[in-house]
Every structure is written in C-alpha cells, then in structure tokens.
Design goal:
Elements (H helix, E strand, L loop, with lengths): L4 E7 L32 E6 L6 H5 L2 E3 L19 E6 L2 E8 L10 E2 L8 E12 L5 E5 L30 E8 L5 E5 L5 H8 L17 E6 L5 E6 L14 H5 L7 E7 L8 H15 L8 E6 L6 H11 L5 E3 L8 H13 L10
Parallel strand pairs: 1-3, 2-4, 10-12, 10-13, 13-14, 14-15
Antiparallel strand pairs: 1-9, 2-8, 5-7, 5-9, 6-7, 11-12
The protein binds guanosine-5'-triphosphate and magnesium ion.
Length: 363
C-alpha cells in the first residue's frame, strides 16, 4: 500500500522534575540544599530523508511520543535529557496543523486514537507549518518540556534549607496532517498504457511494473536519470490519467498532486494509436485535465514524447500529429526497443538544466 497522506498525533516528552535534597556528609554539618534539575523532555522532529519514499512508516505508527526527561537527583545531579524522537519522512512532505472536521460522515481514515490525547480526533488539514524539500532538512514538530529546577536554586540568605522545586515543563503535543508531494525534475504524464513505466525503465535504473493493461502503475515511482558530466535528473512516473481525472476519476486526483512540483512535464502518447486511441485527442485531453486540476499547471513547460514508434501506424500518425501541432517539441521514441532514449535524455537535460527558471516553477 502506498501512503502519501496521513493524520498523526505527536507528543514531545515532559521535562523531569527538580529534586529536593540536602547534602549529607561526614564532617559537613548543615550541608545545604543539593537537589539537581530535571532533564529536558525529548522533542519530536521530522527529518526529510531521500531514502524514504512514502509515509507508510507512520501508517503503522500514527502516534509518535518522545520520552520524558529524568528527574533531578541529590548531589546536584542533573536528570538526563531525553533523546529526540526523529521520524523520517520523504523529501517533499508538507506538514499541516489539524483543523476542525467539517463532514460528519464516518470515515475511519480521518481519525487518530491516542491513549492520553484529548479525544479520538477527526480533523482536516489546516494551516501549513512546514514544507520539507531538502534531504536532511528537519522540522521541530513538538518541543520537549524544559527540566524543573532543584532546590539548590532556591537557597537564599533567609532560607538556608529550601524545600521548593519546580515541576518539569509539559511537552508540546498536537494532531497533524502530513502530505507528500513528490519532488522531481520531470514527470511522465499520459494515458494508461502509453508506455510511461517502460520509458522510466529505459531512462533509469528504476523498475516500475510494466504490463499490457491500464493502471499497472498504482503509485508514483521516481527514477534517477544519469546525464553527462555527472549530472542527474529525477523523473517521476505517475499512474495513468484518464478523462475526468481532475474530478477524481481513475486514480485521478490522488496522484495529480504529485506532479504539482515537477518542473517539466513529458506528455507520453501512444503514437501508434493502439487500442483505438488518437494521439491528437490524447494530447488535447491531457492538457485539459492538467488545466482543470490547477490552471497553474497549464503554464508549466512541457513537450511530447511520441512513444511506440516501432509499431506499424506510428510514422503515419506522427506526420499528421506534427502537422496538427507545428509549434510543439515532439520527440519520437520507442521505450520498448530503446530507440530515441539518448535523445530523450538530452532533451530532459536541456529543459531541466539549461532553463534554471524552471526550478522555481512550483505551486
Ligand atoms: N510496441 C511497443 N510497446 C510498448 C512500448 N512502450 C510500452 N509498450 C507496451 O505497452 C504496454 C503498457 O506499458 P506500460 O509501460 O506499463 O504503460 P504505462 O503508461 O506505464 O501504463 P500505466 O502504468 O497503466 O499507466 C506494455 O505492454 C508495454 O510492453 C513501445 O515503445 N513499443
Ligand atoms: Mg505504468
């Protein structure tokens, strides 16, 4: 199961209590207060990790708790600080605070049951508080409570034997919504069976499943394409789109979010028109779907990868296609036989690296 959005409850550790104690030692009468401070509670930290590709670890563990700090001890001993609980999330994870849930329908997916949390919570994403876009980037989700003060701090000229101390601070806690929006340089976008996964296999070492039926790919797969001069680009293969994807038909909406942060779109069309498809209307309706999902996607740079050129009707269709869209960049390839893959890499390199402004094209 691919998990790209999840509700969680996080709780940082409480600070340890300060200690009340007095120095007791041979030949040291009235040794005075020596109660140490409590340790800090552990923080809950999210860390973006390039080797984590989805949020499934949180699906099995949606309640994250850090340990509390240890209490202070005699002889001015400071309680041990609790370690931070670090949770790895994929690069491209966006963190939202919880907002009240509007719908009343029962939807188990909307609930998180935490033992000592206020109540089983149903909520929707609210304010965005973080966007982890770089490998290794960290976000402090809940801060641990500070340690309490031991009685050693309360000594004064008037009170030589203080019994005061403070409790440790409470760790922060809350419900959050995490959403993954894959970050890649380019995205392969196309109808089911157009050959997107075949192309990703040809371009990179990634091994998405390829089969002659629609919706073979059920979740985004990212491949790293090695380009010249030690350069590399990431390319995302997303599940096939169909007409009405913006209304959540097919695997629609679920996966369109993953292309919102790709700088260039490679519209893959089956130029052979197998299964009675027409390449011209395929491109037109793919463009329409992107536009209807979010008008800003329509402004993103794109070019056409004319796939399946090894099949009989492909050349004829390509001539018609070029005549219909004379101003488009169109690259004929065969993912299956590997023809045109070198040129495709070159084109990706040109579009991704030679046009730095593309990198800012994120919504
Ligand atoms: N003849 C020929 N067949 C191809 C070519 N590229 C892909 N195919 C075939 O087309 C079928 C679908 O390929 P996939 O790569 O799974 O297509 P996809 O676009 O990833 O499909 P979904 O994941 O379902 O959206 C498979 O049977 C492939 O072998 C090609 O260049 N030539
Ligand atoms: Mg596929």
């Amino acid at each position: 199961m691919f998990v790209d959005h999840i509700r969680i409850f996080a709780q940082a550790g409480n600070g340890g209590r300060g200690c009340v104690s007095f120095r007791r030692e041979k030949f040291v009468p009235k040794g005075g207060p020596d109660g140490g401070d409590g340790g800090r509670g552990g923080d809950v930290i999210l860390r973006a990790d390039q080797h984590t590709d989805q949020l499934s670890n949180l699906f099995y563990e949606p309640i994250i708790k850090a340990k509390s700090g240890e209490h202070g001890q005699g002889k001015k001993m400071h309680g041990r600080n609790a370690p931070a609980k670090v949770v790895k999330v994929p690069v491209g994870t966006i963190v939202y605070r919880a907002a009240a849930c509007k719908s009343d329908g029962v939807n188990a997916d909307l609930e998180v049951h935490a033992d000592d949390a206020p109540a089983p919570a149903r909520f929707e994403p609210g304010e965005q508080i973080a966007d982890l876009t770089q490998d290794g980037q960290e976000f402090l989700l809940c801060e641990g409570g500070s340690g309490g003060k031991g009685n050693v701090h309360f000594k004064s000229s008037r009170n030589r034997a203080p019994r005061e101390f403070t409790e440790g601070g409470e760790g922060e806690s809350g419900y959050f919504f995490l959403e993954l929006r894959t970050i890649a340089d380019a995205a392969l976008v196309g109808y089911p069976n157009a050959g997107k996964s075949t192309l990703l296999r040809a371009l990179s070492a990634a091994q998405p499943k390829v089969a002659p039926y629609p919706f073979t790919t059920l979740h985004p797969v990212i491949g790293v394409v090695e380009l010249g001069e030690y350069r590399r680009a990431t390319v995302a293969d997303i599940p096939g789109l169909i007409e009405g994807a913006h209304r959540n038909l097919g695997l629609g909406h679920e996966f369109l979010r993953h292309i919102t942060r790709c700088a260039v779109f490679l519209l893959v069309v089956d130029m052979a028109g197998s299964e009675g498809r027409s390449p011209v209307s395929d491109v037109a309706s793919l463009r329409r779907e992107l536009d209807l999902y979010d008008a800003r996607l329509a402004e993103r740079p794109w070019f056409v990868v004319a796939n399946k050129m090894d099949l009989p009707d492909a050349n004829e269709n390509l001539v018609l296609f070029r005549a219909r869209f004379p101003q488009l960049t169109i690259l004929p390839v065969s993912g299956k036989e590997g023809a045109g893959i070198g040129e495709l890499k070159h084109l990706i390199e040109q579009w991704v690296f030679k046009k730095p402004e593309l990198h800012e094209a994120t919504i």
